[in-house]
Write a structure and sequence with these properties.
Blueprint (H helix, E strand, L loop, with lengths): L1 E5 L7 H8 L6 H22 L12 E6 L4 E6 L6 H25 L3 H4 L14 E9 L8 E5 L4 E6 L6 E8 L9 H12 L6 E5 L1 E8 L5 E5 L4 E2 L16 H11 L8 E7 L5 E7 L13 E5 L2 E4 L14 E5 L9 H6 L1 H24 L1 H21 L1 H7 L5 E2 L5 E2 L1 H8 L10 E6 L6 H9 L4 E3 L5 H11 L3 E5 L5 H4 L12 H15 L4 E6 L8 E4 L2 H12 L4 H5 L4 E6 L3 H8 L3 H18 L5 H14 L1
Parallel strand pairs: 2-8, 14-16, 19-20, 19-21, 22-24
Antiparallel strand pairs: 1-6, 2-3, 3-7, 4-5, 4-7, 5-6, 8-11, 9-10, 12-13, 13-16, 14-15, 17-18, 23-24
Helix pairs in contact: 2-5, 8-9, 9-10, 9-13, 15-19, 19-20
This protein binds adenosine-5'-diphosphate and magnesium ion (MG).
Magnesium ion (MG) binds next to α2.
Length: 627
């Protein structure tokens, strides 16, 4: 039996074109061929369990070997095999029809990236690395004859009698010159580790026995160099395929270590398991994330039936959960995922919603069952939760029950609890609740102390997401406003009744103002007199909450826009009721007056860490003189 034929493709030489565009991803040929081999063994298993195959199934396995000398890579399996007819049908017609379609689309569209990835390359990807591909196969069917197929990457193929005596398929790639890097143990091991680590059948990897003898043994028989003993390289039963009931905490931790050997232990995890309306299993871990934005994205691995696909899970996993670690396995996601596919696919949207819900449920459960433990974890999970609340309304609605606000005393409150706590003291004359926060407890200590003295509570909002979180809370919470503790003097943070007049006359006030304006002599600092508690500092420098936020937003958006171009604008609040102000006013010596004013202003800057460089030096010198 010998047959020659032409693969039904209208265009010659499509290989070079596809090769060129798939250049960066050449290694996936191994994933494709190994997963075909795995599919073939799985089909065998199914046929046997359905009773459609009565023979011996044996130990199903896939073997990957390479021969550096012969420049071949061989993938063999003892799956269902193919008859010559089946090779013609599945390989010549079906496998190559994807390529034909690819070419047609390629002609229409000039954007190669847009079309690549929409086509399952499958078997065909072998030609990215091989000049010639051979198939030896023997079907499981009774009386089947072995078949041999060979194709050199042109549209011509040759089909003849094969040589296999046992059921299964052996694919041999004659590696082309550009792809010789794949003829290396380390390279292949690396690719197999990446894609095949959790495949459901044993993958055996090794090298071949040398053809030429490498000397003689004691009895004078030729000795062959045996390189490496082939061994199973995968875990066929990873934990996400098991039932949560059969797993202990150690198993989850062990698996985590296997995936991320250099990471700290995770905080907790969620075992995902759905089969309707889509199929999905997986384990998601909450890693320890510190308060920096250095967290690593792309730590979740996406699998399809235990074949690794990608660690870019954007679109499948909600943006705010990209910081999670772990695995997701869904047969509803094809091997060759592309961006456009993911965005269009309705399953993907459902998966996204499902994961969001599962994460929210898990957090709610932790909060309910072990509030203390939950509070301990809050510094690590707060970032996720806030990120989620800011970016997804649905998540906000669930998370508002278990999101925590932490104050400077390190006490935690739910949103509802906090409202109750501060309502009495922190409602202004218009019935607005005012929450006061600090983004830097160290630097704003003087402000915090003043606020605390007034009986106000101060929240700590110093994580990288808190800017957004603050805005988000203001939008969602009714009649509630958030103000940074240094956005005004404590007396003015929450406007209660109209403040009583201060002790200075109008004339005196104007004089104080002029003294300070001259002493400070900087246009960005606006001087204002306020009637404050005599115990408060004589001078305080503040930046308006609204102004500061606008500038921060402009800075995040690249510093453009109206607010971005505004110079920093500070308010210098003079406590008209303070002894020192009276003393300055009464001082007869103009120079001394100015010095004292400048000194009081510098002290205000100093307490906020705003006094630096030459100003600081000058302050120190002046202080020495004054002493
Ligand atoms: P897909 O795997 O998406 O069906 P491929 O191009 O990878 O597409 O493979 C085409 C077809 O060739 C497979 O569906 C299968 O029928 C057949 N095939 C490929 N490899 C093997 C194998 N090792 N054993 C049996 N059949 C195979
Ligand atoms: Mg395939």
């Amino acid at each position: 039996m010998q047959e020659k034929g032409t693969i039904s493709i209208h265009t010659e030489n499509i290989f070079p074109i596809i090769k060129k565009f798939l250049y960066s991803d050449h290694e996936i040929f191994l994933r494709e061929l190994v997963s075909n081999a795995v599919d073939a063994t799985q089909k065998m298993k199914r046929l046997a369990s359905l009773g459609q195959y009565k023979g011996e199934v044996g130990d199903l396995r896939v073997e990957v070997a390479f021969d550096e000398k012969a420049k071949t890579i061989t993938i063999s399996d003892n799956g269902i095999g193919m008859t010559a007819e089946e090779i013609k049908k599945y390989i010549n017609q079906i496998a190559f029809s994807g390529a034909t379609e690819f070419m047609e689309k390629f002609k229409e569209s000039k954007d190669a990236n847009e079309i690549i990835g929409r086509f399952g390359l499958g078997f065909y990807s072998a030609f990215m690395v091989a000049d010639k591909v051979e198939i030896e196969s023997l079907s499981y069917q009774e009386g089947a004859q072995p078949a041999h197929w060979v194709c050199d990457g042109s549209t011509e193929f040759e089909l003849s009698e094969g040589s296999l005596t046992e059921r299964g398929t052996e694919i041999t790639l004659h590696i082309n010159q550009d792809s010789e890097e794949f003829l290396s143990k380390y390279k292949l091991q690396e690719i197999l580790d990446k894609y095949c680590r959790f495949l459901p059948v044993p993958i055996i990897f090794g090298t071949k026995t040398e053809d030429e003898p490498d000397g003689e043994d004691e009895e004078g028989k030729p000795k062959y160099k045996q390189v490496d003993v082939p061994n199973v390289i995968n875990d066929t039963n990873p934990i996400w395929t098991k039932s949560p009931n059969d797993l202990k905490d150690e198993d989850y931790l062990e698996f985590y270590k296997q995936l991320y050997p250099f990471s700290e232990e995770p905080l907790f995890w969620i075992h995902l398991n759905v089969d309707y309306p889509f199929n999905l299993t997986g384990v998601l871990y909450f890693p320890k994330v510190k308060n920096e934005f250095d967290f690593q994205r792309n730590k979740i691995k996406l699998f399809s039936r235990q074949v690794f696909i990608t660690d870019e899970v954007k679109d499948i996993v909600p943006e705010f959960l990209m910081l999670l670690h772990g695995v997701i396995d869904s047969p509803d996601i094809p091997l060759n995922v592309s961006r456009s596919f993911l965005q269009a696919d309705s399953n993907v949207k459902k998966i996204n919603t499902y994961i969001t819900k599962k994460v929210a449920d898990k957090l709610a459960e932790l909060f309910k069952n072990d509030r203390k433990g939950y509070e301990e974890k809050w510094p690590d999970i707060g970032l996720f939760v806030k990120y989620g609340m800011v970016s997804e309304d649905k998540f906000y609605d669930k998370a508002k029950e278990f999101a925590l606000l932490t104050n400077t005393e390190k006490q935690n409150f739910t949103l509802e609890e906090y409202k109750e706590k501060v309502a009495a003291e922190q409602t202004d004359k218009n019935g607005q609740l005012v929450y006061i926060y600090t983004n830097d407890p160290e630097k704003q200590d003087a402000f915090i102390q003043s606020a605390t003295k007034k009986g106000y509570d101060v929240l700590v909002m110093n994580s990288p997401i808190d800017n957004h979180f603050v805005s988000s809370l203001e939008q969602k919470l009714e009649k509630t406003q958030l103000k940074r503790v240094d956005s005004d003097v404590a007396d003015k943070l929450i406007s209660k009744e109209d403040a009583p007049a201060h002790i200075l006359t109008e004339e005196e006030s104007a004089k104080v103002k002029t003294i300070f304006e001259k002493a400070i002599n900087r246009p960005a600092y606006r001087v204002e007199l306020e009637s404050l508690n005599p115990e408060e500092l004589p001078v305080t420098v503040t930046m308006d909450e609204f102004m500061r936020r606008m500038k921060e937003m402009a800075a995040m958006g690249g510093g453009m826009g109206f607010y971005g171009s505004m110079p920093d604008n500070y308010k210098v609040v003079i406590n008209a009721n303070h002894k020192l102000i009276t003393r300055i006013l009464q001082d007869e010596n103009e120079q001394e007056q100015s010095q004292l004013a400048r000194q009081a202003f510098d002290l205000a800057l100093l307490s906020q860490g705003l006094l630096t460089g030459a100003d600081l030096t000058e302050f120190v010198n002046r202080s020495v003189n004054l002493i």
